[in-house]
């Protein structure tokens, strides 16, 4: 099975990145009053392609275009409006129906049977059926599939999938079309997280289109083929009309959408510039939705044309402790590092309240162990622990610790300076060292660091975290700690994978979090929050819709309910 690399698991989600904007039937912009410094320095946005007269169109200027056209079946913004997955997740991470209206799990916990909704249509009018589902699995497991989308650790985990990929089998043994609207999938061993991690992750593809598309022709993210309308025929509430690389993508309402005819006439994604220009447009009511961060979050609260919403983002940051270093092997030293940090102060000040102190390796609420050790800010306790360790020869007060970080944004630099001060206050000498991302990976694999500032956001099932605790994987996050403890944690992950009952599984992952805290394997710091500004004339844009714009939250967007008034 192909493992996701450290870098794939820790995709950067900067505080100022990933904004999305909406507008529809906009009135003339009002006079600008009370411009902020950031808005005053912004350059006007480039004009977007005009909508047809009278159309109700939401406009999403989006900066990160590599995610707009990257892989038609993935979880990014445009593909999620165009297509649909077998099942979906609610905001708590629980599995909900989508293209499959129901499913069954066999008694041996190996076989999943999915029952598709009948009568669903592709954007070109063809009927969606089980053959499309089977084709999608075969297509993504193909031996020519060079994508790093997770097909190997997803559909490729089905019984016989790797043999099919290697060419030693003519078909996937664990994939069966039962009838027109029923498909059955079988795993070689039980996997309690499979339903959360796999059927929710990629759109189902239309066989009658993709059977004529050589998979090698779509390996390049921005290849011309991605701008052909046929490549985006899906089951979603909007269908592809046209697009131009790094400029715009226009979608139109799909009247036969299975959840009902959308209220909007269409959606427009257009490249209007960077965050300062977007913020100026928000202030002028030229756009209706914007993800906020830093000073923008503070300034937008003075606008009377928007509502500000804040919600939890399942992505957290921590300090990776290299326990291979002798001076970090005593648990008291690691606990002192934890007690030394005032997480609340850093979250409120440097992160302007868009974070909360965090203590677990898991960032999804439904799996949290509420009773695990939490290292509240206690500098005196940190000093006591260091003194005790020094008395036993396990800590040298003159030892300097190197703290590496690879996030280049100014907020991260300020956060590092804050950490350095807290460590200095309890007597830990700390050198801050910025390195490029590629260098951090090399140092991590070779163990050439003391502390490494890192972060991740994983799928809503704890099985995804196991890779970080693989004792035999040199690039795993927490592989450098006591072998006995490492094996215990790994065995618990394996145990949790074998179970299907939520309460039974949670009890196992509670044990993992308990060990994580007691052994102070790392210094967990904070979990992000996301703030969005929504123009008061937007309707139907619920919390799931807001979260849809965030790469770390897997939720149903309800695009067919979006509307604009006024």
From TrEMBL:
Domain of life, per lineage: Bacteria
Residues in the signal sequence: 1-22
Pfam families, per database record: SBP_bac_5 (PF00496)
Keyword entries, A-Z: Signal
GO BP annotations listed: peptide transport
Family annotation (SUPFAM superfamilies): Periplasmic binding protein-like II (SSF53850)
An example Gene Ontology CC term for this record: ATP-binding cassette (ABC) transporter complex
Ranges for domain Solute-binding protein family: 95-470
Residues covered by region (Disordered): 26-47
GO molecular function, one term: peptide transmembrane transporter activity
Biased composition (Low complexity): 33-47
Name of the molecule in the record: Oligopeptide ABC transporter, periplasmic oligopeptide-binding protein OppA
Source organism per UniProt: uncultured bacterium A1Q1_fos_493
């Amino acid at each position: 099975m192909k493992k996701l690399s450290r870098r794939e698991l820790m995709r950067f989600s900067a505080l100022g990145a990933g904004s999305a904007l909406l507008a529809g039937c906009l009135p003339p912009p009002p006079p600008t009053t009370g411009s902020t410094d950031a808005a005053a320095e912004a350059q006007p946005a480039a004009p977007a392609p005009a909508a047809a007269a009278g159309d109700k169109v939401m406009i999403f200027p989006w900066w990160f275009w590599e995610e707009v056209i990257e892989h038609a079946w993935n979880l990014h913004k445009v593909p999620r409006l165009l297509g649909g997955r077998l099942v979906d997740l609610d905001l708590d991470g629980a599995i909900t129906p989508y293209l499959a209206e129901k499913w069954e799990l066999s008694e041996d916990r190996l076989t999943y049977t999915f029952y598709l909704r009948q009568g669903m249509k592709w954007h070109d009018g063809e009927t969606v059926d089980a053959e499309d589902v089977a084709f999608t699995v075969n297509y993504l497991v193909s031996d020519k599939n060079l994508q790093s989308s997770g097909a190997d650790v997803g559909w490729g985990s089905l019984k016989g999938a790797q043999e099919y990929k290697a060419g030693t089998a003519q078909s996937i043994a664990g994939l069966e079309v039962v009838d027109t609207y029923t498909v059955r999938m079988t795993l070689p061993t039980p996997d309690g997280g499979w339903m959360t991690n796999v059927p929710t992750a990629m759109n189902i593809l239309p066989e009658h289109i993709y059977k004529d598309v050589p998979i090698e022709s779509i390996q390049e993210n921005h290849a011309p083929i991605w701008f052909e309308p046929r490549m985006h025929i899906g089951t979603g509430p909007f269908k592809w009309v046209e697009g131009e690389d790094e400029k715009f993508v226009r979608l139109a309402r799909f009247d036969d959408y299975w959840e009902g005819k959308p209220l909007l006439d269409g959606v427009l994604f257009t490249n209007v510039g960077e965050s300062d220009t977007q913020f100026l447009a928000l202030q002028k009511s030229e756009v209706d939705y914007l993800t906020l961060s830093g000073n923008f979050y503070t300034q937008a609260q003075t606008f009377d044309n928007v509502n500000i919403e804040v919600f939890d983002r399942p992505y957290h940051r921590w300090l990776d402790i290299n326990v291979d270093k002798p001076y970090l092997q005593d648990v008291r030293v690691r606990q002192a590092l934890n007690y030394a940090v005032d997480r609340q102060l850093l979250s409120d000040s440097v992160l302007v309240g868009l974070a909360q102190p965090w203590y677990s390796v898991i960032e999804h609420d439904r799996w949290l162990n509420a009773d695990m050790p939490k290292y509240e800010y206690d500098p005196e306790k940190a000093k006591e622990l260091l003194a005790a360790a020094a008395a036993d020869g396990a800590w040298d007060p003159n030892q300097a610790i190197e703290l590496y970080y690879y996030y280049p944004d100014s907020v991260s630099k300020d956060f590092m300076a804050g950490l350095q001060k807290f460590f200095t206050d309890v007597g830990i000498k700390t050198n801050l060292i910025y390195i490029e991302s590629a260098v951090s990976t090399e140092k991590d694999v070779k163990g050439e660091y003391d502390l490494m500032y890192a972060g991740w956001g994983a799928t809503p099932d704890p099985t995804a975290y196991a890779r970080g605790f693989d004792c035999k994987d040199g690039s795993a996050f927490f592989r450098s700690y006591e072998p006995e403890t490492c094996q215990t944690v790994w065995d618990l992950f394996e145990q949790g994978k074998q179970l299907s009952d939520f309460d039974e599984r949670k009890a196992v992952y509670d044990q993992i979090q308990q060990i994580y805290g007691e052994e102070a394997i790392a210094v967990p710091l904070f979990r992000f929050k996301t703030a969005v500004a929504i123009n008061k004339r937007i309707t139907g844009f619920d919390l799931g819709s807001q979260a849809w714009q965030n790469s770390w939250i897997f939720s149903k967007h309800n695009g067919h309910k979006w509307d604009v008034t006024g």
